[in-house]
Every structure is written in C-alpha cells, then in structure tokens.
Specification:
Elements (H helix, E strand, L loop, with lengths): L1 E6 L9 E7 L6 E2 L4 E6 L4 E5 L4 E6 L6 E3 L3 E7 L11 E4 L5 E4 L37 E3 L2 E3 L1 H7 L13 H10 L17 H16 L17 H16 L2 E9 L1 H12 L10 H15 L6 E3 L4 E3 L6 E3 L1 E3 L2 E3 L2 E2 L7 H16 L13 E5 L18 E5 L3 E7 L2 E15 L5 H16 L9
Parallel strand pairs: 16-20, 20-21
Antiparallel strand pairs: 1-8, 2-4, 2-7, 3-6, 4-5, 6-8, 9-10, 11-12, 13-23, 14-15, 16-19, 17-18, 21-23, 22-23
Helix pairs in contact: 2-3, 6-7, 6-8
Length: 453
C-alpha cells in the first residue's frame, strides 16, 4: 500500500484559498474514485471535492472551519495505486509536499441531480456530535486519535449508526452553528425531512425564550466576532476596489410600468409559459438587453492597465442574488441571444442555484453587466456599486401604486424607480442617460420588445 496526500486543488478560477465546511469521510473510511470527500467554500461557491484515489483514509489534516491556501494537504489516503485516476476533467500536478494537486472539481453537481450528503464528524469533533440517550450529556468519542460522534464511531466499528443524519444545506448548518442550535434536536419541515433556515430560527427563538424564563433582568449581550471569509470576503474586496478605482456616476428615473405589469400577467396566462416563473426581473432584463444593443458601450470595460476599452462580444447578464452566505452575482451566458421564454427559464435557474449554494465558480464569474432588484426588499432605489471588470449596473425598485400626473389629471399608476451607475471614465452622461431612458421607454411600453420571439 502507498500513502498519498490529496491537497486543496487549484480550481482554475484565480482563487487562492478555501474553507473546509464539512468532512464527508472520517479516518479509517474506505473511499472510491470520484467519491465526494470534503465540502469546501471558496470565495465564489461551496463545492464538494472528489477523491482521485481509491483506498482508505489515513489522516485528515484539517478541521472544519480551517481556511487553507491552495496546495495545502487535506488528507492522506492509503492506496494500492500510486497515480490518481486519469480523468479528462482533472489535471494532476505535484505539490511541495510530494502529493498530487487536483486541478478542477472532477464530478460536477447540479441543482437537479445532487449527491445525497451524510453527516460526518469534524476532525477535532467540535462541530459534529450526535446526541446520546435522553438525559445523557453529549460526549465526543475518540477513535485512533480522532474525536468523532456516536454515529461515526458505530460506522467505524462496523455497526449501524444509532442516529439519522440531519439533512440540510451548508448555509443552514452555518446559521445553526452561529445561533448555537443543535440540528439533531430541530424538527424539520422542509422537503424530504430537510431542516430549513426557518426551522433553525424557530428553534433559536425557543431556546432564547427558555433561557429567559424565570429571570427578571437580562445581562447585556456580549459582542461577537465572525471571520470575514468566502463570499463575504470576496464581496468586501470587490466593493473596496470598485469605490477606489471606478469613478462612478448614478442617474435615476421614475417609470410608469403599468403596461409592463399587465404584460407580465398576460404572459403568465400563456400556456407556453405555464411552467416558467415570470417576474418583473424578466421584463427589466429584456429591456436592458434591447437597450444595450443600441448602446453597446454599457457592456464594454475600461482596461486601466492597457489603457484600452474592451468591447464585449456578448452580454453575460449578471443578476445580484442575496444568499445566506452573502451577495453573489451569477450570470446568464450570452443572454442577448435568447428568446423571451428562454431568458425567463435561464433567469429562474441561475437565481435558484445561487440561493441554494449550487452555482459553480464559472457561473459566478464573468458577468459583463449586472441587474439588482432592490424592490424585493420594499426599496425604491439606491446607488448600486459597479462590480470590478464591468462598467454599469442597474437597480430597479419596488413596483408600487403611486399618484402619477397624466396630462392635467392625477391618476394612480404602477411606478418603479430605475437607478443606473456607470463608469464615467469612458461612458459620458449623454450615453448613460440615453441608455437609461431607453430602458424606461421599453418598460413604459413593452410592445417595444417586438424584437423578442
């Protein structure tokens, strides 16, 4: 048997580090080629890394929560083969430690076909401890120097686990950890018995109520410090760079979107759109794509180092999505080439994958123009910040009924505010104003979208 190290791979997206979210194997486990062994969060996404070897796990070199540079050993595997599997989706190199560095993810998961995850222990047993019999305190069990829970200990001993793994998503696990909620004690209400964010929040509220019973005063809450990692760290760096390097100008306009609201209702009744989610975002996106066709500089980029304007060949339409892990911007590839129905389907898919944490790094990189919907929070407008590498971003506010001047009369119309921030190094006020007015005109009269099939 040969012992080989599997190191944190270079995912080929310019990322330099990752945080170990969850181990999917324990020391002593048998693993097969392409079996998911650890879940890692990078600055862009949470991914499951597959094993390039078949063999037995000898050592886990990191604990859940550890932030590791690319190339750091993750685990050692005893295997009969010295070389990893030859897979077209991987590219192996040699790290300084002598172990292979897997480049790429290997097996890719999707929102429609995901590998069922099982609850596994942390290498130091601090985050994964299963409850024992009622009334008995929870105690970790040590196995060959590894502290594990009872379920893992039973599995390592060849017995059936006495507890059922908790089914939930990584963001919900992180929330439970932050709120001090034991997932094993939470009553699940999600699909297939999954614990949801609401379940965790409800359990935390009950814990707080129980803790406060019988007390007349409450001690002042202590401060808490959370490390800035993963997506939050990437967002902070991008916004700092944006504020420091892009001289942005923001313009806004109120738009009568009454006809667009009626158009959306007609589309929703169309049998062709029966299984498609149709929202104001679809019409705003379609209006922006049409207007970019007439003002392509909105989709260009200022390359400060080369002192060149990069004219994009296609619109990679970014959509800002708020998630439990922070703000992400997945994009619809070559959005201008899609029909209205295809655009609706693509928007629904990328937003859903981003919210569920299933978006790939490739989907979260490369947007050339972004739309952010602040209206879902009941906000009318703002001054959106441009993502580095782009030149403009459009925010649209809530679609709400407001008094509106129609000639000499005041009528009630559905109104929304559009806010456009653009890079003033090469997009002048006239260009930005024409683009924003064009988008507004299309939303006021959606019949101008006649170019869409």
């Amino acid at each position: 048997m040969n012992e080989v190290q599997f190191c944190l791979p270079d995912v080929g997206e310019g990322l330099t580090e990752g945080e170990v979210l969850r181990w999917l194997v324990a020391e002593g486990d048998a693993v097969s080629v392409n079996q998911s062994i650890v879940e890692v969060e990078t600055a862009k996404a949470a991914v499951e890394l597959p094993s390039p070897y078949a063999g037995t796990v000898v050592t886990l070199h990191a604990a859940e929560g550890d932030l590791l540079p690319v190339g750091t050993p993750l685990l050692t595997i005893a295997t009969e083969t010295a070389a990893p599997v030859d897979d077209a989706s991987t590219d192996d190199e040699t790290s300084d430690s002598g172990g292979p560095v897997l480049v790429g993810y290997g097996v890719t998961k999707s929102a429609t076909r995901r590998r069922r995850r099982s609850t596994m222990p942390s290498p130091h047993g601090t985050d994964r401890r299963e409850a024992g019999p009622p009334g008995e305190p929870v105690k970790p069990v040590r196995h060959g120097g590894l502290e594990v829970g009872r379920a893992a200990e039973a599995r390592l001993a060849g017995a059936s686990p006495s507890v059922t793994p908790v089914r939930t998503k990584p963001p919900v696990r992180r929330l439970a950890k932050q709120l001090g909620v034991d997932l094993a004690s939470v009553r699940p209400t999600g699909p297939d018995g999954a614990v949801t964010r609401g379940d965790v929040e409800s359990a935390a509220s009950l814990q707080l109520a129980d803790a406060s019973q019988g007390t007349t005063t409450r001690a002042a809450a202590s401060d808490r410090r959370d490390p800035v990692r993963g997506i939050m760290r990437s967002m902070a760096a991008a916004m700092t760079e944006s504020a420091a390097t892009i001289p942005a100008v923001t313009e806004w306009v109120d738009v009568d979107v009454t006809r667009s609201a009626s158009f959306i209702e007609r589309i929703r009744r169309d049998p062709e759109y029966r299984d498609v989610k149709v929202t104001p975002l679809l019409l705003v996106a379609a209006a922006c794509l049409t207007a970019i066709g007439r003002e392509p500089s909105i989709n260009a980029m200022f390359d400060a180092q080369a002192q060149e304007i990069v004219h994009r060949g296609a619109v990679q339409l970014g959509i800002a999505v708020a998630t439990d892990r922070g703000l992400v911007v997945p994009h619809v590839a070559d959005a201008g080439a899609l029909t209205l129905r295809e655009l609706a389907v693509a928007l629904g898919e990328v937003v859903q994958r981003a919210r569920e944490g299933d978006a790939t790094p490739a989907e979260l990189l490369g947007a050339t123009f972004t739309i952010t919907n602040v209206g879902i929070f009941g906000i009318d407008g703002g001054t959106p910040m441009i993502t580095p590498g782009q030149s403009a971003i459009l925010a649209f506010g809530a679609w709400r009924e407001r008094p509106w001047a129609d000639g000499s009369q005041i009528v009630v119309r559905t109104v929304s505010t559009l806010s456009l921030s653009f890079d003033h190094r090469f997009i002048d006020g006239a260009t930005g104003s024409r683009f924003l007015r064009d988008v507004a005109d299309i939303l006021e009269e959606p019949a101008l979208l006649h170019v869409w099939a």
